[in-house]
Specification:
Blueprint lengths: L2 H23 L5 E12 L9 E17 L12 E6 L9 E6 L13 H13 L7 E7 L9 H17 L5 H16 L6 H8 L4 E6 L5 E5 L7 E7 L9 H16 L19 H25 L7 H13 L6 H12 L4 E5 L6 E7 L3 H15 L5 E5 L6 E3 L8
Parallel strand pairs: 3-5
Antiparallel strand pairs: 1-2, 1-12, 2-5, 2-6, 3-4, 6-7, 8-10, 8-11, 9-10
């Protein structure tokens, strides 16, 4: 999809959402904001270990239309009430709705998809000292849920960018990334790192975000897929996962134990060639993945700086093997997607995201894409697995306001 076509589609979606907002809430929104999902090219589970990651924002995004509920505008409800509606949570089943108050908001007072905007309001109050009034919000998204493409973080980022603009908070992008991480960790209860929000906030068209998760220093490195005749094929296994489930938390705790046993504040401070023999075997494997994965991120980033995008495939595959064998966060469907893609001609493939389900990605030449798609579909059918969703993605710009041609109209 060309840049112009992508921008036009986004404007059309935003205009449609603004019109729908007016029908739902009886007034036009103050604006529409967009936040993309992300694919992590490489660097899995390194973010909460203060390591390196290399994600890119994708051309699938969450949109929120928002209107602050100012005193006197809505006499039927208190001004700190937040009314939410979503076209997204149950596609094809009409709107889903939720409501909460910004005053005295605590974890557990909002559930399901409503926890994501509520978590942002909570984080703004607790960590930025922001007084958030009530507001109305309508959500739509094209980021698949549970696919490992950061659908929840896209919602959170869209909300915080909207509130930052509307309330004039003056937050910078790294600051908003930290706040949405607090929303995930403290309100939603998911022990995620900083990567997903950062990619959604700071991504750029045609590039990947090389991020140091300790300092939050970042760099856009070129990812010119189309110019090299390449695509990133997403293979959504349709095995849903959740970062609030126990497996993700257990891996994080294992890494923390390993760092402590090695006398380090985090695994970022542990040398790549450190002696791990004093650790139990499971912790050895967990730590070995993090140390080797950080090195792979550095290597891929350098190859992209050197213009050698067509040489990163082996490192992507090595990442998957490490995640499968040392970190043990893969699953049969993810392994099959990777193996089938490689057998059909992919240059490299790996699971992406937290694991236990979700998606794998494959780096494929345009000429091989049809064969790779067919190979993956055939392999899943032979195993009796649910048919995966296959689609390509391109690096996209980070979150921001979507300019409408006129308020609520195209």
């Amino acid at each position: 999809m060309s840049t112009a076509t992508s921008a036009t589609n986004l404007e059309e979606r935003a205009g449609a959402l603004a019109r729908r907002f007016a029908g739902v809430f009886g007034a036009e929104p103050d604006g529409v904001w967009c936040a993309p999902g992300r694919v992590n090219l490489i660097g899995e589970h390194t973010d909460y270990n203060n390591g390196f990651v290399l994600p890119f924002a994708i051309d699938r995004s969450a949109l929120v239309a928002v209107r602050l509920r100012r005193p006197g505008q809505d006499p039927e409800a208190d001004t700190d009430v937040v009314r939410l509606a979503s076209t997204y949570a149950q596609k094809g089943l009409g709107l889903t709705r939720a409501e909460f108050s910004t005053g005295g908001l605590e974890p557990g007072l909002a559930a399901d998809w409503a926890a994501y905007p509520a978590g942002v309001v909570y984080a703004l109050a607790q960590h930025a000292g922001a007084s958030v009034p009530g507001f109305d919000l309508l959500l739509d998204s094209t980021v698949p849920v549970g696919a490992g493409l950061s659908s929840s973080h896209a919602v959170e980022v869209a909300v915080i960018v909207a509130l930052n603009d509307l309330l004039g908070l003056g937050l910078d992008r790294p600051g908003m990334a930290r706040l949405t991480q607090y929303a995930e960790n403290e309100f939603v209860g998911a022990p995620t790192g900083i990567m997903d929000q950062s990619a959604s906030l700071m991504g750029a068209e045609g590039g990947a975000l090389f991020l140091d998760c300790r300092s939050l220093d970042s760099e856009i490195v070129p990812l010119p897929l189309a110019e090299h005749g390449l695509s990133v094929l997403v293979m959504d296994t349709r095995v849903e996962h959740s970062h609030s489930d126990g497996g993700y938390s257990a891996r994080r705790q294992s890494c923390e134990r390993g760092a402590a046993a090695l006398g380090a504040e985090s695994l970022r401070e542990v040398p790549a060639d450190a002696d791990l023999s004093g650790l139990d075997r499971q912790t050895q494997r967990r730590v070995r993945h993090i140390l080797s994965e950080n090195q792979r991120v550095l290597q891929v980033a350098q190859k992209l700086r050197d213009g050698a995008v067509d040489s990163i495939g082996e490192l992507l595959t090595a990442s998957h093997i490490s995640l499968r064998d040392d970190f043990e966060v893969s699953c049969p469907e993810l392994d099959l997607a990777v193996d089938a893609a490689l057998a059909a001609g992919a240059m490299g493939a790996r699971m992406t995201g937290g694991g236990f389900g979700g998606s794998a990605i494959a780096l494929v030449r345009h000429d091989d894409e049809d064969a790779v798609r067919a190979g993956v579909l055939s392999a899943f059918a032979d195993k009796g697995f649910r048919e995966p969703a296959l689609f390509t993605v391109l690096p996209a710009d980070g979150a921001g306001h979507v300019q409408l041609t006129a308020p609520g109209r195209q």
